[in-house]
Fold:
Amino acid sequence: MTTDGVEEVELTFMYELLKERGASVELVAPKAPEYPSRFAVQVPAIRETHILTVHYMENSGWMKIDTYLDDASPLDYDAVIIPGGAWNPDTLRGNEQALDFIKEMDGQQKLVASICHGPQVLINAGLVDGKKVTSWWSMQVDLTNAGGEVLDQPVVVDGNLITSRAPIDLADFLDAVIQKLQLSGTVKG
Structure:
C-alpha cells in the first residue's frame, strides 16, 4: 500500500522481487487527491492511474496502480507492505481508509510490514504500542513515544509485524518478508 512520494527503490525492488519469488503482488493506492480550486493545484492526468515515485526528494517516475484502496479488501491479501519516502507515509497516516485496512490486516494476524518512514502509518494505526520496532533514525523517537521498543537494527520481526530502517536494509527486510510469506529464495544469499 502506497501513494505519491514513495521512495522508488523501496517500492519497485520489492514489487518485482516478490513477483519473481511467486507472490501475487498488487500496488494498492488511494485515488488521486482532490484539492479545492482556490489552492490552484493541478494534478497531472497520469495520476488517475499511477502514483508518483521519488528518489530521495526528487521526483523519479510513475508506477501503475493495480487496485484502488476503495476497491481493496483485507480479506483478499496475505500481507500489506508500506514502503517509505517522507511524503507517502505522511499522506497514508492521515487516510482513515488506509488505517482501517492496516488495522484489519493486523487483526487477522496477517503480515504487516513497513520500512524507512513507513512505520509512521503503523503509529497512527495503533500497532506500535508494546511491539519491538525500528525505522528511519529520525523517527525512532516517534515510535518510542507511541509505546514501541525501538531496536536500531536492519530489520525487526515481532509477531506478524516486520519493520526496517532504510533502503540500505532492503535485502534484510525482504528476506524477512519472504520467510514470513514462505516464498522461495532469499535476497542476500
